[in-house]
Fold:
Amino acid sequence: MPVKRGVAYMYNMLTLILVACSAEPAGLDVTLHELSPDPAVSGEDVTANLHISWADDGEDVTDAVVTLTPWMSAHGHGIDDDVLVEELGDGLFTADFALTMPGTWELRVDVDDGLAAGSVEVEVQ
Ligand SMILES: [Cu+2]
Structure:
């Protein structure tokens, strides 16, 4: 490759990388694989097994630091406790927590500190 074209190529690649870094977080597809008990009961411990995949190519999320934040959009609040998330493999992650009110909750999922985000809704009795 001639030097000039090489420089132009590198410049284009650098531009691409910068655009990728400044973009919104990538999308995640989050599905509720298993909820125990189902339905969840307000104030009682629940175990949620979530399947998380990349929205763009459908690949399972693996070897990632996943943060789960329960959020009640209707009231604009979450829960007081931090949620510990464990990776089970094959895109499955599990967490135990208690949802403090009946109604619709979002389980907001964040991968690698803001790299990607998604959510799934659960109904609490
Ligand atoms: Cu609420």
The beta strands are 26-36, 45-54, 66-71, 85-89, 92-98, 103-111, 116-124. The longest strand covers residues 26-36.
